[in-house]
Design a protein that fits this description.
Largest sheet: 2 strands, antiparallel
Shape: globular
Number of strands: 2
Distance between the termini: 39 Å
Oligomer: single chain
Radius of gyration: 18 Å
Helix content: over 70%
Number of helices: 6
């Protein structure tokens, strides 16, 4: 299975890098790959969110008996496992390929950083929809833009940090 992921990742790298030439002189390849794959996953996330919110949940409150979940939060909770998986795959096999950490450590750290993203998503969605009165899809877009900055920094400097960088940090302290 790992071989399939690696080959698929290499195919995606080849496709993304084909578009890299115009950005060669002012944007590092890793940031370009993160922007391309993160942008594609974000577009996928927003599209799924819209479909789930509008057509599956039908903008209705989800009653579970012990709790009622607002439609914008329910859509987020249903879409999350899908885009979590695609996001990890793209980060591990396309963007941050130089990381020497074991896959299970990366996955655990990715889960932690995504946990932070979930909290930020929840807080911002609640704020934009319920306090600012914005449409749910527009709120999701604004929320996503804010969470992207956190996500890149957390993934770059924590989740997929290379062993060499970890060693350099340990020797400095």
């Amino acid at each position: 299975m790992r071989t399939i992921f690696e080959k698929t990742g290499q195919f995606v790298i080849n496709v993304v890098d084909w578009f890299y030439f115009p950005f060669l002189h002012f944007l590092p390849r890793e940031i370009f790959r993160y922007a391309a794959t993160g942008g594609a996953n974000t577009l996928f996330d927003i599209t799924l969110y819209f479909i789930f919110y509008r057509y599956i949940i039908k903008m209705q409150i989800i009653e579970l008996g012990f709790v009622a979940i607002s439609p914008h939060i329910a859509a987020f909770l249903l879409v999350f496992p899908i885009t979590f998986s695609t996001g990890f795959f793209l980060a591990k096999y396309v963007t941050f390929t130089s990381s020497e950490l074991k896959g299970r450590i990366q996955l655990f750290r990715y889960l932690l950083t995504v946990g932070g993203s979930i909290v930020l998503n929840y807080v911002f969605l609640k704020f934009f929809v319920e306090y600012c009165g914005l449409y749910a899809t527009l709120s999701k877009i604004l929320t996503t833009l804010l969470v992207i900055v956190y996500s890149y920094l957390a993934q770059r400097y924590f989740t997929f940090k290379t062993g060499k960088k970890l060693l350099a940090m340990r020797t400095k302290s």
